[in-house]
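Phosphopantetheine adenylyltransferase
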Amino acid sequence: MKKALYTGSFDPMTNGHLDIITRASRMFDELVVGVIVNPAKHPLFTKEERVAMIREITDELPNVTVDSFEGLLADYVNRNRFDAVVRGLRATTDFEYEIQMAQMNARLFDPGIESVFLMTSPEYSFISSSMIKEVVSLNGCVEGLVPEKIMDEIVKKYVNQ
Ligand code: COD
């Protein structure tokens, strides 16, 4: 049984994230989507909102579960005995950040735990959570870029602000 973690801020989840989840769920027996809580950051969505939205989005993927955690990624990964940590790669800018993080994590992970990178699908390569937030905040349309199930919730966030 191989168990992997796909981790990130997911503030909010996009179709780029969902594509990585769907593909990774076919590669591992169990995939946990881990929402990172960084007390120094001020996300648009609370931890509870992000976890609930991701559960709704992934409810048709039977081997995918959702969790959240604070602190050092490697501590969570070692404690829960994951085999791999999945990350997505869009552009060279992602690569520079990801290689640094993977190499640091390689020192911190228990032996045998790997970082695994999936290339973005071309149709999602330009999507980021921050760009989605900017477009929605300026009343732009993000149809096809975020999961249909959470579209209303994203729009409502700005209407209620
Ligand atoms: N297509 C494909 N992949 C995508 C897309 C897309 N359109 N958009 C994003 N992704 C990938 C990202 O490259 C990333 O791999 C993943 O999806 C999650 O993305 P985000 O933006 O939601 O999350 P990040 O990159 O902000 O998460 C960074 C962490 C919070 C995971 C990182 O900072 C961390 O591990 N923090 C914990 C503290 C720690 O352990 N620090 C030491 C690290 S060495």
